[in-house]
Batch of 2 targets.
Target 1
Amino acid sequence: MAIQITKIFKKKKASILERWMQNQLAHVGLREDLISNDDLRADSSELIVTLLDTLNEKNLDDPDSSDFDPVVELLNSLSLSRARQGFSPRETGLFIIGLKEVLIGVLQEEIIDHKELADLSLKVHRLLDNFSISTFEAYIKGREEVILRQTDEIAEISTPVIRVWDGILALPIIGTLDSARTQVIMETLLTEIVESGSSIAILDISGVPTVDSLVAQHLLKTVSATRLMGAECIISGIRPEIAQTIVHLGIDLATIITKSTLASALQHAFKSLRLEVRQQRIDSVLSRVKPQ
Amino acid sequence: MDKIPILRMGRFLLVTIQVDLYDKLALDLEADLIKMVGKTNARGILIDISAVNIVDSFMGRIISNIGAMAKLVDAETVVVGMQPAVAITLVELGLPLRGVYTALNVEKGMDLLKSKVLREEETDPDDDYAGDSSV
């Protein structure tokens, strides 16, 4: 008796696709802005074909069977691409859940015996629920990839090294310093020191919300590495609260030159490079600042 | 048998490390350098490590040792041209090379040595080289 089911589905393949498409197109949540009807149809038909190719009477009872690998793979890739395109979890999930409704519907029409119908429906439910779960897993993985990529991008763009003067680099740090970020900061700073031949680097931490012993340790590491390269490192932008925390935590920053503002750090840098910045004597509105 | 040449430039010694230092070579360099300082009465040592890409704790220690030994015989040590990766490694190893000066390149290193030695000579009238400004 059980032999029926694959036959039924194969016989009704075209009708399953049509109904499924109709359901999807009629759904209020259809995202025509993200995927065209043709693409949706192609995806749907590919999924049905793959599913019916792999489905047989034996593996119907066993949703974890490796026979379904191609289906799961296809679903995963669909789900991943949808996650990247910006589909919501609900929209992604409804795709596969919609297919279940159609398949059950077909079974209801074809099988008259109630007991058998219930039995087969349960199997189909289990199988497709399993697919739904793996779709969700893939969807979440896709979103996580997006988040990871964004984190990397933020780390990359959040460490600009600015050449404020010939021989002076400034690096404004914004956000919390963790070890991964310190590594990126250190690398970009040191590379830039070599490239520009700068002898002074200013680390501005006015954008760092809190300084704890770990952050201080990261700062000390960066300063030591800069010193090893043969450049001097000044830390600027130490707010009063941060100074308080540093002293209360007993962190020793005595070996480092620290300044309260970027301006005073720059002044210190000018002094050690024996540069002088002063206002022009001429009583001109257009008094310009120029190096001596 | 490899040997790292030590060049004499006025009152300074110039060492350019162009091969990866293995332990024996580094130990030999340390001994040679300190002997050379004694022989030539050098006031400064400039070590160029711009060609060194790999560093371990042993080499970090050798450089620290050279700096400390040179200090004992009244000579300053400047390490120049360190690669970013090497600097990061040394910091991660906890070897910040206290006791040696660092400079970005040979030119800046030479300037640094001159300024250190000259300043000392100005403030130290008993120094043998006091008054000799033809460096």
Note: Chain B has one domain: 6-123.
Target 2
Amino acid sequence: MKQLTLEAKLEKINELMAFVDAGLEEMGCGMKAQMQIDVAVDEIFSNIAQYAYPDRAGSATVTMEEEDGAVVLTFTDDGIPYDPLQAAEPDVSLGADERPIGGLGIFLVRKTMDEVRYAYRDGQNVLSIRKKIR
Amino acid sequence: MNINSRMDAGTLCVGVEGRLDTMTAPELEAALGRDMPAAEQLVLDFSKLDYISSAGLRVLLAAHKTMSRKGGMKVIHVNEIVKEVFDVTGFSDILTVE
């Protein structure tokens, strides 16, 4: 299992993406799955960076492991409790003028990953995604 | 990400290369904000775009709204990964994708 702890700041995304891409390449992940996983990582980490710590600096830990031909990425932070899976799904049938800004990110994650799980444990948000890579 | 913009007879053509995500979407937003006022139509060429996240989708939606009051916007040369994002988010129905 690989693990990386970062400050929960948007400018850390590139460092996280390099960590994820290196791991996926080692696992022999296909290009399409890698791009979809990268998008999911972007959505999840940017949410943490923007909302988990409204009034203090904080960090996020990301672990990565392979399990039965799938990759499992887990994001842990000790910011405000937030279960993104409880967020209402956006109405994707709305036209451009009725579209609210936001809410699409986690929806995309749920649509493109095979499994998304959330738990609040020991004062921490634990969000994991699983995606078949071959 | 690289952005190549050129204006041709009122049509602004913008090629976007690489990844359109949280970190790079503001660059595209700034480039469009600078060049769109002079454009009658907008063409976004995604032939070299690897992927798009929701931050990129927000920029597209805002550009689409601005351009729909003028000559419109279209997105061309979309790869399979980007197309799937457009499909699941309903953007395929909003945008003109060729």
Note: Helices of chain B lie at 25-35, 54-68, 80-89, 91-94.
